[in-house]
Amino acid sequence: MNNIFNIKKTLLLVMGLLLATACEEQLTEMNIDPNGINPSDANPNLLMPAVLAPAAQRYLELGFNNMAGAVQHTQKNGWYNAHNHYEWTASEWDNWYAMLRTNALLEKRSEEMGFDFFTGVALTMKSFIFGNITDIWGDAPYTDAVKGDLGEEGFEYPAFDSQEVIYDGIIADLSQAADLFASADVSVVNTASDFYFGGDTDQWQRFANSLLLRYYMRISEKKPQVAQAGIEAIYNSGMYFQTADQDATLDYTGGANDVWPSQFTDVDDFTRWQACQTLIDQLVGTNDPRLSVWFSPVAVQWVADPTLPMSVDTVLRVDGELLESGAVTFSYLEFKEMSDTDFTRRFNPNDESFDTGLYVGLPPGLLIPESYNGNPDPGQGTRNQHVSQLAPVYATAGAPGDILQARVISSAEVSFILAEAALKGWNVGNAEDHYNNAIMQSLQTWGKADDYESFIAQPDVTFDGSMEQLMAQKWVASWTAATEAWMDYRRTGLPTLEVGPASGQPVVALRYPYGNDELNNNTTNANLAIDRLEITQYSGPVGADSPWSKMWVLQGTSKPW
To answer: N or C end: fewer C-beta atoms under 10 angstroms in the chain?
Structure first.
């Protein structure tokens, strides 16, 4: 991974290009921007960063927000309906297709100029972006997508391809990209424009093959023979991510428009994120060293005191002594300034019941999460002093090389995929070795490699050969990239996730409903796609276009329910 310090500067260079590609093809001379870049002679070096940066950032924002709530990594105590309760209404995909428009121009110009490296990049990113679209919504415009933006007529209302066609196309494009990278000339590449790998063709080939492993496993229940042959071939090639320093990541620079999603800009924003009890139970139960990297201890720890003459002693204590000021709570910033102080509050267990842990999460899907565990100051923008929030590092803007990176795919994910393939009996080596490698790679990512030996020796972590254990550890390792954990849950039903009382249905949601733009403007094709969704017992009154309906990749699999 190259540390790129000039993302913002480079992106400014392509602003004119993005404006130009958004214009109609037929322009009069008076309407031509003399400062814009002409798509007919655009340099792929200027196009590439306009795809790489937003693709990684969008993936991170999804995996850190709604998908983290869906798979119970986090919950929110404000503006939480979508995050905590699966209240996913009509959702637009325009951001993803905007990337595809720029990427299509990158592919076109690369082929015109005979630059195999850039063609490989375009095919890889096309696959990654379309993979997310079909993973999230189901059937989508694919074959005819963005053709109208490149000047072809008759594609104003593109047909929706089946999910099977899209996955087949993704696999074909990634395979072609991997072949191109094997012999591509990089003398034409401006390494500063390659935010992922600095023009390293070896890394790009590993990246394409690692994504292939992801998508082969995605379709493994529907096309097991195709998946097995594909995964075995890539394993035998050895050209996939095998170490944490090979991961496909994007640095955040900390610039005005390039910051981590939870950067502390005001109390209201940052304090909404809370740990989810499901993940806290897993991390605490296995003495996971990543716990303190991801979450903060509670600001005030409950202490049970059966001698207390009242149910709750509202005043805070330090070293067991009541504060003379009689303070009940402090603001987030005040607690932050006193982070070295151990605050406690007592309660009588004969009258009340609270979580007394040092790390406490919000149970999923609560009706009133802001009041959980006796919070004396509920409301948005206030700290729940009795629940763990994100660790302080997640309040920063991000700096090149630190842990705040958008992770597109990791060596840990790849090793877990190979471990799962080995458990299926496929010829990819030893499942335990891959499982152990995956855990080591994840610990390296979060700066806890020195804790590997003690962690792997934990009774619930030492490899036992079960899918349940493997998928639980993969779910943990997907922190900040929870979209992949959501995909895994959908196809395996693991780990077991129980939704809360405020969830719209008693099971985890499976997809985003189509956006109003498609429903209103591409109605015929959108309705045909909706008709191909499988209505389940949880689809509800919405019908087929429900978050709880099944797309092709899940139909007939009995997963996740």
So the answer is: C
